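Hi U.,

Before I forget, here's the chain from the pilot set. I'm dumping it here mostly so it's searchable later in email.
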Amino acid sequence: MKNSKIFEENKVKEIDKLEKQNQFLEKLQNGNASTDIFNSEQNIKIENILEKNKQYLYKLQSNEFEIAIVGLEKAGKSTFANALIENYVLPSAPERCTFTSTRLTNGSDKAVVEFYNENEFNDIFKELLKDIEYPHFEKENFKTLSIDKFKSFFDSLESKNPNLYKNHIGKTDKEIEDILNSRDRLTLSGKTKEFSGEELLSDSFQAYIKGENKGQDTSKPRSVKRVEINSSKLKKLESAVIYDVPGFDSPTKIHERQTIERLKSADAIILVTNVGRNPSLLGTQLNIITNNADSDGIPLRDKLFVFGNQLDTANSQDESNGNISTLKNDVAKYKIGEQKRVFTGSALKYLVKDKQIVQNDEYNPNWEFDSGIDKIYDELIYYYEHERFEILKRKIESNKRELKEIFKEILDDSEMDFDPNFAENEKSRITREAYKNIEANLENSLKKLKYELKKEIWEERYFSKKFIDDIENLEYFKEIDEEMVRDSKINEDDSLTSDTPIEKMNQAIRSRVHKDFLMEFSNLIRYMTDEKSKDVELRILRRFTLSIFGSDDSTLFDEIEKDSERLIQKLTSNISHNDGRFTYLIERFSRDIFDILLKSPLFSQDRKNKFKEAETEFTYLDNFYNKGDGTLINIILTGENKKIGAGLDSNDILTLSKTLVSFASNSYRWGDRMNEILNIGERLVEMASKGTKYNLAEILKDKKRSQTQEEVLLEINKDIESLKDILQRAVVPAINLELAFLNSIDKQIKILIDSFKSNDTENSKIFDNFISGIVPKVKSAEIGRINEKLGQYKMQQEFIGEMKEFEF
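Structure:
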């Protein structure tokens, strides 16, 4: 297909413009990841514009001219296509012939048939079922669906859904039945098969287009996904791509979809009719042409040609002339095209008589007429160089206008002035945001941790429970045995006789046990508090570091954690945990109990003196032991676990005790109320001192000291048992390690939060120095990208400048 010089010159200009436009758009697209010059919506539009431009550019560069030949079945479409390309490669027959859309291009004489695979074919089958609203169509398979079951369902539509039944009767139902009847003969390999030379004229090839047994067996064409024929005899239209598609009135639903899609994408449409027998345009033809437009909004009628074929089948020349007039009038009447694009004649005459391509001795027209093929060919060439080229330019121009609108949006929203302080300002922004986020995260995380620890330690009585568990499960405060008594007797024996004074032996054993047990108790308390303190310190440190860095999944995390540990130590060193932290509390509430139970033998004067010396403390502990009923007093004086007095005013003590507990459990900042809590404690001690005055003479009347080794053994072990009991029930609750421990944690967390919430304090200066060194580490990647962003910013401005100056 040789083009004119003017056409070629104009085409080169359009190609040059499109290439420059596409190059610029691709440059913008490639840089958009860095510049964010387009928003997501604009980026999609740019992608669509570029894709269309590439299609237009390909059409211009390749001279591709896509022609779709359509019409009713048996109108001679394939014969017309053969005449147009001066070849006889497409099958033609008086019965329904074209079953598969066929693509013809110039090239070596060969054909490629591509088959569906089973999944692809089954997807098409399910779409057909979906069209008729078959229940659970998505679960069906063409290989297993019963044809009787399908027929029963479709027949039921006549009463259940008459409109659906009417729209599909004779079409979709027959197509599905045809698939089910031929499923065992389908070739669904997903592979391709090639034919060449004379094979293109053989039934073995043409069966994949028209079927077999005069179209009754459609298994082969149904299996075909694509048929492409390259013919060396297509030189007359070497740039054309011709599609011979199934008829408008094909009962096959797939054909209808193929036809409409092909018409939309084609550069030119040739509607072939049987002007000899049926000159009037029918509704099916009119509906498809008038109700559709291509993807660029161009109405199909703007690119429509009409060829009234089979003129030689009219009964006379007069009838043929009348039929020609009818056809032209219908084209004008229904406004589906222009009369200058209406041609009539006979494709068969062109093949048999004009070009002698087909041998047919029986063909003899009754009158002379022009076959019309050369005329429509010449009009196609003119259309290609002028009107079709103008349509293509309109499409390009439409694309260009859309692109200009996008560029205008971007230019209107952009700031063309470059900020010379961009890098410094960006670094300041990153630093400010980091400071703000870190401080907010720290405050929230530390307060949350304090709340968690309050619940874990105070509400669940962590130390009290642990002390009891350790006493019961570990080897603390072990009872003495006979061996220890014998060793003591040997060590204390300074008499010439075989007898060692029992009192001396009793005292010696007690001194040893007293010393050891005091150490055990101190170590036990220290171990519990040290262990928990380390756990809390680690949790504070981890929360602190995570608040700064956000994740522990980095090698930098360890470095930040070490810096944070040094900061926390510097800020809280004065109140952080140490070995002697709870010594005062331990001595305050436990030493007298250890002395009287372990150091002083039962019923000895030393025990009496110790009781008188610390009676106030013992009375105070008695309130914890059993509500001040004297049971603890009786235990330490007599070893007997029973009450000896009415005790204190329980209502007054209960009220004050509840107040004390309320302050400790409900106050969020325990340290703020410590003075008030201590005052209440002093009042409890005062009440205890005014409690029952015990008559020691009466209590100890007729009590005798141990006289034998066996009695000493039992006495001391009884005191050890009493010690463990009193420690658990009175001493540990009185010490109240939970409250003291939480008070220390509260102070630490308060100091940490105040260090970044307060201004112009020593601690705030320490934190500021810390954070000024931390932020560059935490934000090193982001700060390091400032130069990259600066480059991106400059690139963005360059792009915007190029947009502004770009010549469309």
